[in-house]
Amino acid sequence: MKFESRGLSSPVESSPTSSKERLANKKVRRSLGLAGVGLCMSTLTSFSQSEVAEFPYEAETTFAIIGDSWAAGSGEGPFEEGTNVPGPEGNRCRRSKNTGVHQVADKYTLNTLDVACNGATIGEIETGRYGEDSQLDALRDYPGTVSAAFVGVGGNDLVDLGHFMNQCMATGCPPDSELVKDVERKVKSEEFKTSLTELYVDVAEASSNADVFVLPYPNPLPEGSLCSDLVGEDISQTVSTLIPNLNESISQAAADARRKDYPVYEVETFDMSACDILNPPFNLDRETDPLAFGHPNREGYRRIGEKIEETIINVYQSESSKE
């Protein structure tokens, strides 16, 4: 299956460049393009002029989305046609336009190449899943200009996250259980971190050295929240330890890729309590759509989108200050 992209740009010949060269090019393009950005101001109702001016990517370039169910948006449809087909042979990648990356791209009039897929592991980013093409090949073959790639993957390499959460809710998952201990050993292993680093490097190279932003997993059961009372202390303690450890490994892998001189940055981690009753950020309905359970809903992805946008601007300002 060939992937769909929205608003395909004209083919562009590109070659790898250093992060300093790319930054200099962005500065020139931004200077030339600010007048054009001003023409689009009427559509960017939630941003001030200064915020728009600081956003480093040109309109009509492309954000690529690589990864698993959290990157794909499995928590809330509607889903891209053909990616929510039931049955043993069906495609269940469940790609949604509600994700944080899509919301940022929409605000800044960018295109998207979304190839993320529910359940994907690090290895399946290369091999494909549900009969789809390799996510990396889709990125390599894309004829437009990819300004940034967003990668969210890793959880499924440790455990089937959906099964894990359902088991925790049904029978509990105390921190001293063998299941939890096994996951903790994997998440802290050098093999896991090395696999992530190699993937981030592969994404950077497949996108002609576009900026790569690594997406963490927001912690749904932060310590000190009301969640302990609602879901049980064992579950809360397990998840509130596991997610930060996973994000720490993701952060270390991104730092290792940067040390190899690849433009890889991590989006800031944050807590997003599943027990926010007034404005819940997660889909907690296991009956209506089991595959959506435990994933961010549109509100959750709105919050993630804010962090993505904030990180992009902060990285751009930080890199600019080094010049």
Keywords:
single chain; alpha/beta; Rossmann fold; six-stranded mixed sheet; 13 helices
Give a short overview:
With 323 residues, the chain is of the alpha/beta class. The chain has 13 helices and six strands. It has helices at residues 19-39, 49-54, 69-72, 100-107, 122-127, 135-141, 155-158, 161-171, 178-187, 190-206, 227-231, 233-259, 298-321, and strands spanning 5-6, 62-67, 111-114, 146-152, 211-214, 264-266.
CATH names the topology as Rossmann fold
**CATH class designation:** Alpha Beta
Unreliable stretches (pLDDT < 50, length at least 5) are: 2-20, 26-53
What value does the average pLDDT take?
82
CATH architecture designation? 3-Layer(aba) Sandwich
Q: Please tally the helical runs, counting DSSP H or I stretches of 4 or more residues.
A: 13
Protein structure class: alpha/beta
The strands making up the biggest β-sheet line up spatially as: 1-3-2-4-5-6
Q: Can you count the beta strands? A: 6
Strand content: 5-15%
The rough form would be described as globular
Q: Cα distance, first to last residue?
A: 43 Å
The Rg value, from CA coordinates, equals 19 Å
